[in-house]
Amino acid sequence: MQIDQPGAASASSGASPASTQRPAGFDTFLAWYFVIIWGSGYLASKVGMQYAAPFTFLSLRYAVGLVCMVPLVLFSACRWPGSMRELGHLCVAGVLMHAVNLAGSHYTQYFGMSAGNTALILALQPLLTAVFAQRRMGERLAWYHWAGIMMGLAGVALVVWPKLSFQAMAMGSLVAVTISLLSITVGTLYQRVHCPHADLRVAGLIQFSASLLLVAPLAWVVEGFVVRWSWQLLASVLFLVVFASILATNVLHMLMRRGQATRVTSLLFLTPVVAVLLEWVMFGLVPTWLTAVGIAITCAGVALVSVRAMRA
Fold first, then answer.
1. Which of 15, 39, 115, 216 is most exposed, with the fewest beta carbons within 10 Å of its own?
2. What is the distance between the terminal CA atoms of the chain, rounded to a whole angstrom?
């Protein structure tokens, strides 16, 4: 699943060409890291929300994220936004990708929708990204790229099909998951278009701050900010902050800068697959034969979407 593109934009402004070169296979390593962490995030969030409601859980997550990011930014040679306009773009992208997206996906399950339903609907993101990228960003997709996208979506449907519960498709859940789907799609592309050379460390600090300012008042007013402290809650928050919100999100933006948007977001098709496999390892939930077929189709679809980059 190689997605290198020679001559792609540097991850931060002012970098020399030599500093942007990567060892062979480095982008493949980053891609697999993103898939594994993003997929395991479903389980970590599920554990954390047993001890705090969604807005409260997210407030803790962004507060811990700020504690991690402040010293990193202060003791690094970071490039800050050069204008209020750039700062505003980073805030908008961050609120969409972090606050609105995660609040929507968390409340989807909080309202009763199963993880299978949620994963299936959110798997539409690569398809929406492909449509938007072709129309607005000048990306040209061949027929086999579209075929790979549809294969990936079909494979995800088979993976989560045994867990689907259509009785859980309440209107509140559908609204929440739709908001999540649109916000992560728009937010990711928004940052790529409007903040292509932003320092990702500073971007993380700014976006955690903006997201916390949005969700903390909601946690207090809507949920009463009730927290049942436990080591499981702290472990899930730390895992999601360090490995998902900071590292995996930055990996996603790095890959977006080095490859086409559709090919990078097609990796999201693999996250429900990872979640299913982790449930098997951690909780003994053995996948069905239908799930195994879905995993094979999903992997084939992602490979098809990435075929041109693999030849590069």
1. 15
2. 12
Q: What confidence tens digit (pLDDT) does each residue in 88-137 have?
A: 999 999 999 999 999 998 888 788 776 656 666 776 776 676 667 665 65
Query: pLDDT exceeding 90 applies to what percent of the chain?
Result: 31
pLDDT of 64 over the 60 cut:
yes
Q: How far apart are CA 231 and CA 245, in angstroms?
A: 20
pLDDT of 138: 59
Identify the residue with better confidence: 109 or 55.
55
The C-alpha angle 217, 222, 228, rounded to 5 degrees, equals 90
* pTM to 2 decimal places: 0.75
